[in-house]
Amino acid sequence: METKIIDGKEISLMVKNEVRDKTAAFKEKTGKEVCLAVILVGEDPASQVYVRNKKKACDYVGFKSLSYELPESTTQEELLELIEKLNNDDSVHGILVQMPLPKQIDEKTVIDTISPLKDVDGFHPMNVGALCIGEKGFVSCTPAGVIQLLKRSGVEIAGKECVIIGRSNIVGKPMALLMLRENATVTVAHSKTKDLAEVVRRADIVIAAIGKAKAITADYIKEGAVVIDVGINRNAETGKLCGDVDYENVAPKCSAITPVPGGVGPMTIAMLMNNCLESALRFSGENI
C-alpha cells in the first residue's frame, strides 16, 4: 500500500486562489474592498510571525489589511475600545486578535466583545453555538481547514469511524462537530481516556491535536487509516518542527497522512481568508 502524503501547501493555495478570484469579482461588482483587521498586543515572537503570514495572505488574495500593533502594557479597556471601534466600522469585515494576550487582559472577555458577525476566527460563543446546532456562522479555521484537506484529497468521511485526540475549544470540540456534520461516527479521546491506543486503533480517520511531540506512535494506528496531524511542536533533540504523530513510523501504515510542517498549518490561514470573504459577502448581501 502506498501512503498518500496530503500536501497542505498545495491545497491551501487552491483555497487562496478561489478566494482571490471571488474577491476580485466582489470588488468589481460592489466597488468595495474586503478588509481584515489584525490586532497584536505585545511582542511574542511566534505571534509576530503569524501576523506577518496573515498580512502576506491578505496581500495575495487582494484584501485590505489593517494592522494594530499595541504595546505589552495595553490595558483591557484600551483593547476593548479598539475592538468596539472596529465592530462599528462598516468597511471592516473581519476582526482578529492574536492570542496569547498579556496577563492583564482576559481572553474570554476579548473574544466575547468581537462582533459575532466579524469573528472570522470562529471563537465567539454565538458562532460555536451555531456550529453545534448546524446553523450558519463562522467555523474555527483549523478544523475547517482539516475538512478541506480530507475532501480535496478524496477521503470519504461519511460512515467512517473518526477518533479526535484532544478536546480544546479551538480544535478538538469544533472538529468533532464538523466531522459529525459530514456524517462520520465520532469519538473524542483525551488525557483521561482509558486505553487510548485501543480507542484510536478503531479509527478510519485519526485527527491528533494534543500538543505533545510524537505522542501518537505506530501501535495506535490501524493499517490503512487516514491520519491528520494538527500538532506543531519543537523536537527537543533536533530543534526541528514536528507534529503529535511519530511521522516516520506511522506513515507506512497509513493510506494518507499530513506532514508537519506543510500539512494542516497552511490551511488555517487559507480558511481565515475564506471566512473574511464570507463575511464581506454577508454584509453586502452579494452572492458570488
Largest sheet, described in full? 6 strands, parallel
Shape label: globular
Distance between the termini: 41 Å
Please state the structural category.
alpha/beta
Tally of structural domains: 2
Query: CATH class of the largest domain, please?
Result: Alpha Beta
The overall average pLDDT, rounded, is 96
User: What is the CATH homologous superfamily assignment of the largest domain?
Assistant: NAD(P)-binding Rossmann-like Domain
Give the helices and strands as they follow along the chain. EHEHEHEHHHEHEHEEEEHEH
In the sheet with the most strands, the strands line up as 1-11-8-7-5-6
- State the helical fraction: 40-55%
CATH topology of the largest domain: Rossmann fold
Structural Rg: 19 Å
Which percent band covers the strand fraction? 15-25%
Taking pLDDT < 50 over at least 5 consecutive residues as the criterion, the unreliable ranges are none
Tally of DSSP β-strands: 11
CATH architecture assignment of the largest domain: 3-Layer(aba) Sandwich
Number of helical segments with 4 or more residues: 10
What's the layout of helices and strands?
Elements: E1 4-5, H1 8-30, E2 35-41, H2 45-61, E3 64-70, H3 76-87, E4 94-97, H4 107-113, H5 125-132, H6 141-152, E5 161-165, H7 172-181, E6 185-189, H8 196-201, E7 205-208, E8 226-229, E9 233-234, E10 241-242, H9 247-250, E11 256-257, H10 265-284
Parallel strand pairs: 1-11, 2-3, 2-4, 5-6, 5-7, 7-8, 8-11
Antiparallel strand pairs: 9-10
